[in-house]
TrEMBL record:
Enzyme class label: transferase
Record PANTHER family: RNA METHYLASE-RELATED, TRNA (GUANINE(10)-N2)-METHYLTRANSFERASE HOMOLOG
PROSITE patterns given in the database record: N6_MTASE (PS00092)
Name of the protein described by the UniProt record: Methyltransferase
Coiled coil: none
Example of a GO biological process term: methylation
Superkingdom, natural source: Bacteria
Gene Ontology terms, MF aspect: DNA binding; N-methyltransferase activity; site-specific DNA-methyltransferase (adenine-specific) activity
GO CC annotations, alphabetized: cytoplasm
């Protein structure tokens, strides 16, 4: 049932039945109008009118007593918290991924990524919980301007799911979550709005099936 869909998650997710997925792992736009050095941008990274409807759909399609793990923009955390709580999610954990490099400097040198663990209902705790501070591996952002490393995503998937579970990423970018899920023996549904990143993800998934580096 694995699939990587080109489209708007606000149009795609309503076509899925309630309680259809076992885990959500996603890296939505941070609402900061990000552009990398090459000028690459991310869809819907300026306005936030999509955020609450998207999170509401994420909550609907997630099974009862299951987890959603979402990266977020720290400077817009109030908007993310409002959307998560309005949808019904309960915040149960926070993860920090430490970088060996500084990705940006301003008032501080930014050397970490972070994500919140959200619960729908009362999911069981993992048998061996991950530490909430984990290392980060630089991807080079070859496929996407904010590409998350598969090596960091796979342990998250393995901790909060079982083999053959369905992992959803409604903001899939170049498909890192899908690649990590496939490597972990899970099914996946990825949704990406921009054709260039969707095409990159399709190439990565095809390479994975062929036994090549993704």
């Amino acid at each position: 049932m694995s699939r990587f869909v080109l489209g708007d998650c606000l149009s795609v997710m309503p076509t899925y039945p309630a309680g259809a997925v076992d885990f959500i792992l996603t890296d939505p736009p941070y609402l900061v109008n990000f552009r990398d050095r090459a000028g690459r941008a991310i869809a819907n990274d300026v306005r936030d009118d999509w955020l609450a409807p998207a999170v509401a759909q994420m909550y609907r399609v997630l099974k009862p007593d299951a987890f959603c793990l979402s990266f977020y923009g720290w400077s817009k955390v109030d908007a993310f918290f409002a959307a998560w709580k309005a949808a019904g999610f309960r915040v149960v954990g926070h993860l920090v991924f430490t970088k060996s490099y500084t990705s940006k400097a301003g008032f501080l040198g930014y050397a970490h990524e972070s994500a919140y663990l959200l619960a729908k209902g009362r999911p069981a705790e993992p048998a061996q919980p991950l530490r909430d501070v984990l290392p980060w591996q630089y991807t080079g952002n070859r496929h996407h301007p904010t590409e998350k490393p598969v090596t960091c995503l796979r342990p998250l998937i393995e901790s909060f799911t079982r083999p053959n579970d369905i992992v959803l990423d409604p903001f899939a970018g170049s498909g890192s979550t899908c690649v990590a899920a496939a490597e972990a023996g899970r099914r996946y549904i990825g949704i990406e709005l921009l054709p260039e990143y969707h095409a990159a993800g399709m190439r990565r998934l095809a390479a994975l099936k062929s036994g090549l580096a993704a």
